[in-house]
Design brief:
Elements (H helix, E strand, L loop, with lengths): L9 H45 L16 H8 L9 E6 L12 E11 L4 H9 L6 E11 L20
Helix pairs in contact: 1-2
C-alpha cells in the first residue's frame, strides 16, 4: 500500500527552518565566552596594576602614554595587550590627610575597555533588530590598593575622592 503523503524533503525543510536559530544560538554562546574572557582579563589586569602601584611605582608621565615600568604598562602587559594605555586611569586617595601621598593612602586603578564582537553575531543581529544590537561593549574594572611606601615625584599624581565602592 502506498503512502498518501510523500515525505521526501521533509528533513531538508526542517533544517532550513531551524538552521538560523541554531546558528544564532551557537554564535551567541561563542560571543558570551569571548566577553566573559575579556571581562576576567580586564579585572585581573586592574588588580595586577593596583598591586604594582601599591609598592610605590609611578604612572606614566603623560596621559595615554606607556612609559617603561609604569603602572599603565603593567596593566597592558597583564592583559596580554588587550587593553591600551589610554584605557587605564590611575588616581590616588589621600586617606591620612597629611601633605602628599604616603604609606596607607590608596591608589585606584580604573580600566574602561571597549570590546568589539568577535563573531559575526553583531552584523547578523543588526539585520534582525534593524541596527539596535551593539557591536561593541564597554567593560569596566576598578581595583584599589593601599600604598606600601610613598611614591616618588608626587607632582605627577592625580588625586580623587572616589574609590571602587562608589
Amino acid at each position: 500500500m502506498r503512502s498518501l503523503y510523500r515525505e521526501h524533503g521533509q528533513a531538508a525543510v526542517e533544517f532550513v527552518l531551524l538552521f538560523p536559530f541554531v546558528l544564532i544560538l551557537t554564535l551567541l554562546l561563542i560571543e558570551l565566552a569571548w566577553v566573559f574572557n575579556a571581562h576576567i582579563t580586564v579585572n585581573s589586569s586592574a588588580r595586577e596594576a593596583a598591586r604594582f602601584a601599591a609598592v610605590a611605582n609611578l604612572p606614566s608621565t603623560s596621559a595615554g602614554a606607556c612609559d617603561a615600568n609604569s603602572i599603565e604598562e603593567r596593566a597592558v602587559r597583564a592583559s596580554s595587550n588587550r587593553v591600551t594605555c589610554g584605557e587605564v586611569f590611575v588616581k590616588y586617595i589621600d586617606e591620612n590627610g597629611d601633605p602628599g601621598f604616603s604609606r596607607g593612602d590608596s591608589v585606584v586603578i580604573t580600566i574602561s575597555h571597549t570590546h568589539s564582537t568577535m563573531t559575526p553575531l553583531g552584523e547578523l543581529m543588526n539585520v534582525v533588530s534593524f541596527g539596535s544590537f551593539p557591536a561593541t561593549f564597554t567593560l569596566t574594572a576598578c581595583s584599589d590598593a593601599r600604598l606600601e611606601g610613598p611614591p616618588a615625584n608626587q607632582g605627577l599624581l592625580e588625586e580623587t575622592n572616589e574609590d571602587c565602592a562608589t
